[in-house]
TrEMBL record:
<dbReference type="InterPro" id="IPR004111">
    <property type="entry name" value="Repressor_TetR_C"/>
</dbReference>
<keyword id="KW-0804">Transcription</keyword>
<dbReference type="InterPro" id="IPR050109">
    <property type="entry name" value="HTH-type_TetR-like_transc_reg"/>
</dbReference>
<dbReference type="InterPro" id="IPR009057">
    <property type="entry name" value="Homeodomain-like_sf"/>
</dbReference>
<dbReference type="InterPro" id="IPR001647">
    <property type="entry name" value="HTH_TetR"/>
</dbReference>
<dbReference type="GO" id="GO:0045892">
    <property type="term" value="P:negative regulation of DNA-templated transcription"/>
</dbReference>
<keyword id="KW-0805">Transcription regulation</keyword>
<dbReference type="GO" id="GO:0003700">
    <property type="term" value="F:DNA-binding transcription factor activity"/>
</dbReference>
<dbReference type="Pfam" id="PF02909">
    <property type="entry name" value="TetR_C_1"/>
</dbReference>
<protein>
    <submittedName>
        <fullName>TetR family transcriptional regulator</fullName>
    </submittedName>
</protein>
<keyword id="KW-0238">DNA-binding</keyword>
<feature type="domain" description="HTH tetR-type">
    <location>
        <begin position="5"/>
        <end position="65"/>
    </location>
</feature>
<dbReference type="InterPro" id="IPR036271">
    <property type="entry name" value="Tet_transcr_reg_TetR-rel_C_sf"/>
</dbReference>
<dbReference type="GO" id="GO:0000976">
    <property type="term" value="F:transcription cis-regulatory region binding"/>
</dbReference>
<feature type="DNA-binding region" description="H-T-H motif">
    <location>
        <begin position="28"/>
        <end position="47"/>
    </location>
</feature>
<dbReference type="Pfam" id="PF00440">
    <property type="entry name" value="TetR_N"/>
</dbReference>
């Protein structure tokens, strides 16, 4: 195998691409090395092992969120700021649906951080921004908790709808739910087509609007 000099950034970016294509269950140092044209041992010069590599890949994606076009804008209101951050995170989740569950399952920078805005850098930026819009310390922290809860719940549903499990599964696992006899559940059977309708973009916008309205009411009280 031809030797080539790699950087840590190349290794981490290659891991993201590999997971996007194959899922995290398929990731091994040997397979990633083969994809990069190097022996697996060459990767250990940059990361101690597989788990550390996955954690680095998650951190890289979170940091990349700062480079999103929406994040280059400076909204005139905190409501606009929420819209920009939420939609940038939604774009990230739908661009990397197999990576998104790892943002929940990988340990954050600190135990009091909440996914998906799970890095100290991101939370400091978020809270500082809210302070700039006139939020008190307590209101900013409460908004961070409410906002991340909304993002986490809604975006997990959206990536799950794409066939991605919110919890990593074994490679050979299978979903047996499709074998359930719907004849035993007439209401579900009758409404199955409605349940299968995909209105995720509208529901995301509606949920975000509801959250903003609740926070606006709290700010005014």
């Amino acid at each position: 195998m031809i030797r080539r000099r790699l950087s840590r950034t190349e290794v981490v970016q290659a891991a993201i691409t590999f997971i996007d294509d194959n899922g995290v269950q398929a990731l091994t140092m040997r397979r990633l090395g083969a994809a990069l044209g190097v022996e697996a041992m060459a990767l250990y010069r940059h990361v101690p092992g597989r788990e550390e590599l996955i954690s680095a890949a998650v951190g890289e994606l979170i940091d990349d969120l700062f480079n999103d076009d929406l994040m280059q804008e400076k909204p005139s209101s905190w409501e606009g700021y929420f819209q920009y951050v939420a939609n940038a995170m939604r774009k990230l989740a739908l661009t990397h649906p197999k990576m998104f569950p790892l943002m929940i399952t990988q340990p954050p920078d600190a135990p009091w951080l909440r996914p998906p805005l799970r890095s100290i850098r991101w939370v400091d930026y978020f809270l500082t921004s809210l302070k700039g819009y006139g939020f008190s310390d307590d209101r900013a922290v409460s908004a961070y908790k409410a906002f991340t809860s909304f993002l986490l719940g809604d975006l997990l549903l959206q990536v799950s709808a794409l066939g991605v499990s919110p919890v990593p599964l074994a490679e050979n696992s299978s979903d047996e739910q499709d074998n359930e006899n719907l004849g035993d559940y007439p209401t579900v059977q009758r409404l199955q087509s409605k349940l299968a309708e995909n209105h995720s973009a509208r529901e995301f916008d509606d949920g975000l609007d509801d959250l903003i309205e609740r926070l606006r009411t709290a700010m005014d009280s």
